Automatic annotation (TrEMBL):
Keywords: FAD, Flavoprotein, Oxidoreductase
Residue ranges constituting the Acyl-CoA dehydrogenase/oxidase N-terminal domain according to the UniProt record: 6-118
Protein name: Acyl-CoA/acyl-ACP dehydrogenase
Family to which the UniProt record says this protein belongs: Belongs to the acyl-CoA dehydrogenase family.
Length: 395
């Protein structure tokens, strides 16, 4: 592995940081969070048209830029610094790769260019409490995370030459606003139950959706009710490649999320360092106190370790290796630590709605609820590496 970045990768980071600095300040962020969708459409358009961000990791044959997971992860790091209110995670990191992995050639040709251009947003409709399981981040994804053919989740049934879906899915990232839904559903009844994915337009008849209140407002979530909705099967009907595709998507998504968490932690630490240089107690800046220096030094060391793990995971995902889950655990822990110290060292103002410090803490807690928790990410990574195989472990 070459630990250095290419000139192109550095340019992506620099250009994206400059654009976000101009277009995504604290006021713009809060204004976007208060909209029904929770996104800034003007910022999304700028990222798509000026940088081609939605199609960064898609092949050029489908209108993408043709870069690897590494470039997408580096872009995620800059978006994490700004907590940018755009649907990149749902569209380009989760739903888009599932379409590419499972879709037929005709489906990929029809959908991926629109996703790459930013003209179409998408969401992966997997129950939010089961998202980490479906992506094989906290355990094997061969269980009943999508309903198991029993009551719950979404069920699919044949209707002539097509399919009809019925059921409910909650905590779907951008599910309330996405123009295309990639819905996980069970087909075949109880005896021959299998998980398949289906394409549902956002304006389909019988689809009812609404934005849910979420801990982290920068990650808007929606609830979907599918009342006998017509859907198009994504890929083949046997469902054999679904779980493997989800595992691959989960590993690359974990690398992007890890870099995103590193970016958020880096910005939270920067803001805290700036503040402790200004806030005074006993006639001197609190940043000059040794205890404060030690606390921030510990955050810095943890952040740098998480950054190294995240960069390696991004490289590994592009080379067929798996390191995303462990890197995500390290990064989420670093973000939680940086955000918590930031709130503490900002004093009373850090707990208020008027200050942005709480947004970084909520991002850390919200991501852990969606993609963790940290101890399960680490446990699954240890199991996958057979770290404790043949050893007696005392708890």
């Amino acid at each position: 592995m070459d630990a250095g970045f290419t000139a192109e990768q550095d340019e992506i980071r620099r250009t994206l940081r400059e654009l976000l600095h101009r277009r995504c300040g604290p006021e713009e962020l809060r204004a976007a969070l208060d909209t029904p969708d929770g996104h800034d459409p003007a910022l999304w358009t700028a990222l798509a048209e000026q940088l081609g961000l939605p199609g960064l990791a898609l092949p050029e044959a489908y209108g993408g830029v043709g870069c690897s997971v590494t470039e997408l992860a580096l872009a995620g790091e800059e978006l994490g610094r700004a907590l940018a209110p755009v649907p990149l995670l749902a569209t380009a990191v989760l739903a888009g790769p599932v379409v590419r992995a499972l879709g037929t050639e005709a489906q990929c040709a029809a959908l991926l260019p629109r996703l790459a251009s930013g003209a179409l947003t998408a969401a992966l409709a997997v129950p939010g409490t089961a998202l980490a399981t479906a992506l094989a981040l906290t355990g094997g994804n061969g269980g009943e995370w999508a309903g198991g053919g029993r009551a719950g989740g979404v069920q699919a049934r044949r209707a002539g030459e097509g399919w009809r879906l019925y059921g409910e899915v909650g905590q779907v990232l951008d599910g309330h606003s996405a123009e295309l839904l990639v819905v996980a559903a069970h087909a075949g009844g109880f005896a021959r139950s299998r998980t398949l994915f289906f394409l549902v337009p956002g304006d389909a008849a019988g689809l009812v959706r609404a934005r849910q209140t979420a801990l982290d407002a920068t990650r808007p979530q929606g609830r979907l009710q599918l009342r006998d909705v017509e859907a198009e099967l994504l890929g083949g009907e046997d469902g054999r490649g679904v779980l493997g595709a989800l595992r691959a998507v989960g590993d690359s998504a974990a690398a992007v999320l890890a870099c995103e968490a590193v970016g958020a932690a880096d910005r939270a630490l920067e803001r805290t360092v700036e503040y402790v240089k200004q806030r005074e107690q006993f006639g001197r800046a609190i940043g000059s106190f040794q205890a404060v220096k030690h606390r921030l030094a510990d955050v810095y060391v943890q952040l740098q370790a998480a950054r190294s793990a995240a960069y390696y995971a991004a490289w590994a995902a592009g080379h067929g290796e798996s390191a995303g889950g462990l890197a995500l655990a390290q990064a989420l822990e670093a973000l939680r630590c940086a955000a918590a110290e930031g709130i503490q060292l900002h004093g009373g103002i850090g707990f208020t709605w008027e200050h942005d410090a709480h947004l970084y803490f909520k991002r850390a807690a919200g991501d852990e609820l969606l993609f963790g928790p940290v101890h399960r990410l680490r446990a699954h990574a240890a199991d996958a590496a057979r770290l404790f195989e043949g050893r007696e472990v005392s708890v």
